[in-house]
Write a structure and sequence with these properties.
The protein is an alpha/beta fold. It contains 14 helices and 17 strands. The strands form four sheets. The chain has a seven-stranded mixed β-sheet, sandwiched between helices. The chain has a four-stranded mixed β-sheet with strand order 1-2-3-15. The radius of gyration is 21 Å and the shape is globular. The protein starts with a helix and ends with a helix.
Length: about 400
């Protein structure tokens, strides 16, 4: 069995929704290193797209998953299970939320948030159903979350889409003001746009959104699918702005590689979901929740988030130094270990990804032309230095 054989199977049997993949077949990992079928190592600065928050083969996750698998992997939500209740408690105790609902993915978590916002006002006999989102945003690939996503390239092939969504420019508070009507039920925002190119929300913008929502009786929803669970140096990105969203969603890093999504919500809003309004078969199953509890409990240990923040500052400063030496770099953005290096438009981001791969480093390109770095939160300084040195070699000018 070799790389070409697996690529051949994929080409023959798998639906091609991912385009031209990178030509490596991964088999296992350790720490922040992935290994391919030929035994070649790669420092992973993608982490399964901000998912593998504790890297590969982390003892806390392995212990939790294997231990739970020996007991019970799945049971319906008709009965209670211990890991689900314990994980919900841990999330609530460390956030601004009061209640949690578990799903299987970020898209499902965002779907639930959309439904809950509409139901909350429906329960009050108020005809408020419109949700304002940002241009260049990304909220998922279901029909409703594509409709919420402010990028036409994701929407156009699937029209007509569900109605009730307005898209306005990101970081433009005045545009949000102009979009609000008596039908508006929520503003849904990413505190840092991930797929849009690592675009940071300004302090004034995020705080202004909270004030606008209070003034107009609108819910503030944060999509923290990519920014949550320590990715930005704080447990949740909303903490950078000293705001408290009514609802926020999680996925990706929450499970450390095991599929899980979550909606965290204030109690008065959570009460709008009553039996029959929403549900899930796999969401919140014991295996996923046990893994997630291990991830969250590890990240909450003393000093862990402080280390993420320090490494993020170091990493960003090294990229800024690189920008001073290379005119090919247009901008450096991001917080913590969610960083982006925007290239000039004449440079192929895809080619840069492939060039870096030749040196044994895995990254990807997002937004218009931005190299995205979302490594495991356990990445070390030496591994960061290796990436910066490789970028210094492969940048064309």
């Amino acid at each position: 069995m070799d790389t070409q054989y697996i690529m051949g199977l994929d080409g023959k049997y798998y639906i091609n929704t991912f385009g031209k993949r990178l030509p490596i077949v991964v088999t296992h990992g350790e720490g922040c290193i992935l290994y391919d079928i030929n035994g070649n190592p790669y420092i992973d600065f993608l982490a399964g797209i901000a998912v593998n928050s504790l890297g590969y083969n982390h003892p806390a996750i392995i212990k939790a998953v294997t231990g739970q698998a020996k007991k019970i992997i799945h049971t319906s939500n008709i009965v209670y299970n211990i890991p689900q209740a314990e994980l919900a408690k841990l999330l609530v105790e460390n956030s601004c939320g009061d209640r949690v609902f578990f799903a299987n993915s970020g898209a499902e978590a965002n779907e639930a948030a959309i439904k809950l916002a509409r139901k909350y006002f429906s329960d009050q006999n108020m005809n408020k159903y419109e949700i304002i989102t940002a241009s260049n945003s990304f909220h998922g690939r279901t029909l409703a979350t594509i409709a919420a996503t402010g990028q036409s390239k994701y929407q156009d092939p699937f029209k007509p889409l569900p109605t009730g969504f307005k898209h306005v420019p990101y970081n433009d508070l005045e545009a949000v003001k102009m979009a609000i009507t008596d039908k508006t039920c929520a503003v849904m925002i990413e505190p840092i746009q991930g797929e849009g190119g690592i675009i940071e929300g300004t302090f004034e913008y995020i705080r202004g959104l909270e004030n606008l929502c209070k003034k107009h009786n609108i819910l503030l929803i944060f999509d923290e699918v990519q920014t949550g669970i320590g990715r930005t140096g704080k447990l949740f990105a909303y903490e950078h702005f000293d705001v408290k969203p009514h609802i926020f969603t999680l996925a990706k890093g929450l499970g450390g590689g095991i599929p899980i999504g979550a909606v965290v919500v204030q109690d008065k809003i959570a009460k709008s979901f009553t039996p029959g309004d929403h549900g899930t078969t796999f969401g919140g199953n014991p295996l996923c929740c046990a893994a997630s509890y291990a991830v969250l409990n590890t990240i909450l240990q003393d000093g862990f988030l402080n280390d993420v923040s320090k490494k993020g500052i170091y990493f960003k400063n090294e990229l800024i130094k690189l920008k001073k030496e290379h005119k090919a770099i247009k901008d450096v953005r991001g917080k913590g270990l969610m960083l982006g290096l925007e290239l000039n438009n004449d440079i192929s981001g895809r080619q840069m990804v492939e060039d870096v791969l030749k040196y044994g480093i895995l990254i990807n390109c997002t937004g218009h032309n931005t190299l995205r770095f979302v490594p495991p939160l356990i990445i070390d300084y030496k591994e960061i230095d290796v990436l910066v040195q490789v970028l210094d070699k492969v940048l064309p000018y």
